Amino acid sequence: MLKIGALQLKSNLILAPMAGISDFPFRMLNRKFGCELAFVEMINSRSISHKSRHTQRMLFSNKDDRLLGVQLLGCEEKFVRKAMDVVNTYKFDIIDFNAACPVRKVVRRGEGSGLLKDPKKLNKILKIVVKNAKVPVTVKIRSGWDKDSINAKEAALSCQDAGVNGLFIHGRTRAQGYSGTVDYNAIRQVKDALEIPVIASGDILSPQLAKKMFDETGCDAIIIARGALGNPWIFKEIKGLLDSGEVVQRPGIEEIVKVMLEHLDMCIDFHGEKNGVIIFRKFFSWYTRGFRKVRPLRELSSRVKTRLEMNEIIQAIPGHSAVLVCR
Ligand SMILES: Cc1cc2nc3c(=O)[nH]c(=O)nc-3n(C[C@H](O)[C@H](O)[C@H](O)COP(=O)(O)O)c2cc1C
Known about the structure:
The protein is α/β, with parallel strands linked by helices. The protein has two domains: 2-244, Aldolase class I (TIM Barrel); 253-315, Non-ribosomal Peptide Synthetase Peptidyl Carrier Protein, Chain A. It contains 14 helices and eleven strands. Strands 3, 4, 5, 6, 7, 8, 9, 10 and 11 form a nine-stranded parallel sheet that branches. A two-stranded antiparallel ribbon has the order 1-2. The protein is globular and about 55 Å long. The N and C termini lie far apart (41 Å). The structure holds flavin mononucleotide. Flavin mononucleotide (FMN) binds next to loops. The site of flavin mononucleotide has 22 residues, from loops.
């Protein structure tokens, strides 16, 4: 059992916030496979108040989409305060503040992992979030800005001082982006220093790597990011290994195809046929990672426009024989 402030979780496996990925269909699909806490896509404090159609779509949820967190990006007190007013009109179980995003245009504004260069400012902003929040607050940081300025422990202590209820840490520096090795030691140092739960991130791509993260860092929970792309089964696989040492078999092609079709339908139901198919294109590649002789289908999948066409391509995956009914 994991406790983040007043929020009780049965599972210590959390679906990571992923911009451009964590939409309603993606969250709901992962929930079917054991994900308990998921996040809507990261939202900028400045744009959330505009309530554009795009933002409203990002914030959409329903009663089955639980437990659910929102993640805010920002560095200006005025906008963060305003954003909290908007967030409070929605039903979220947790609010996370992003001090981890490595994207150039974000850090240039002093947001995301740019805040790691200024832990005092981060502390000030977090105090605003905590003060205005009606639910538990967490923060997500990286191990530091670059290899010469690893300051995860200092930054994490400052976040704890601001009153957050939990801390997510991606064990890479901003300079590393998403490549290079994960710094388990930096995460361990943070875990040893903090009293609040520490939730670790970085290369949770398999049950074995998930176990390694727990073993090497002593973290309270982990977040699954790239490991869940085209692989919602990862939740069951990690749980199997952690709970009973069981190595859960990877699903066969029939099962993967079935889930692909379901995911495609969910994307179309939520985003409409045109956008749903476009959004699903990248998932086609992820679901078929490691499959043989799928390159021509992958190329096709990046061009198709309709449900029928995408359905046909999915059913044409070599090794798959079922006849499926298109909606
Ligand atoms: C496509 C993509 C989008 C991401 N978007 C966010 C985001 O909006 N907020 C965030 O805190 N982390 C984001 N991340 C980082 C992940 O949450 C995670 O910390 C990182 O990918 C490391 O985990 P992994 O090595 O297991 O993928 C994103 C990662 C990916 C791959």
